[in-house]
Write a structure and sequence with these properties.
Belongs to the YajQ family. It contains 4 helices and 9 strands, in the order βαββαβββαββαβ. By secondary structure, the chain is an alpha+beta fold. Helix 1 crosses helix 2. It is elongated, with a radius of gyration of 20 Å. It starts with a strand and ends with a strand.
Length: 165
């Protein structure tokens, strides 16, 4: 039996499931009656990890985002991984918005997580490693307490707890 147990806190999305959610949303937009003859569309750029949404007006854009969120939820992709950009005027009286997908834990957020974990008062150590935070402790129950605390009080973007040993 190991002396110390550990897990990593990461923030990532399943890109295959995200792709499937986008394809399903694109299909629904193509066949829905209220989108017939409009410029409503979704483009997914896997390399840059963002989505470009196009619509005739702001109301329609909000509907496109709602369709996308429904498909993401059905595929098990965290909806709060979407970060909305600013609304832009596009060609032919249409609007565009670029949504980015949150992946990785930035250094400032990692420092906040480590500080939060220390404030809990549980005997565990947290350290920043690239875009993740590793938490180690002697008892599995203490690590599970940290996970439960972060699920309640963590950041607004999704966190996953992996490599539990």
């Amino acid at each position: 039996m190991a002396d110390n147990h550990a897990f990593d806190i990461v923030s990532e999305i399943n890109s295959a499931e995200m792709h499937n959610a986008v394809v399903q949303a694109q299909h629904e937009i193509a066949v829905r009656y209220d989108f017939k003859g409009t410029r409503a569309s979704i483009e997914y750029n896997k390399k840059d990890n963002n989505l470009t949404l196009l619509a005739d007006h702001k109301g329609q854009l909000d509907t496109v985002i709602q369709v996308l969120k429904e498909k993401m939820a059905k595929r098990g992709v965290a909806v709060n991984a979407l970060k909305r950009g600013k609304l832009e005027e596009a060609t032919h009286d249409s609007v565009r918005e670029i949504l980015t997908l949150h992946t990785g834990i930035e250094t400032d957020d990692a420092k906040k997580l480590v500080k939060q974990i220390k404030q809990i008062g549980i005997k565990v150590q947290a350290q920043i490693m690239d875009s993740k935070v590793r938490v180690t402790g002697k008892k599995i129950d203490e690590l599970q307490s940290v996970i439960a605390y972060l699920k309640e009080n963590g950041p607004e973007y999704p966190l996953q707890y992996v490599n539990f040993t």
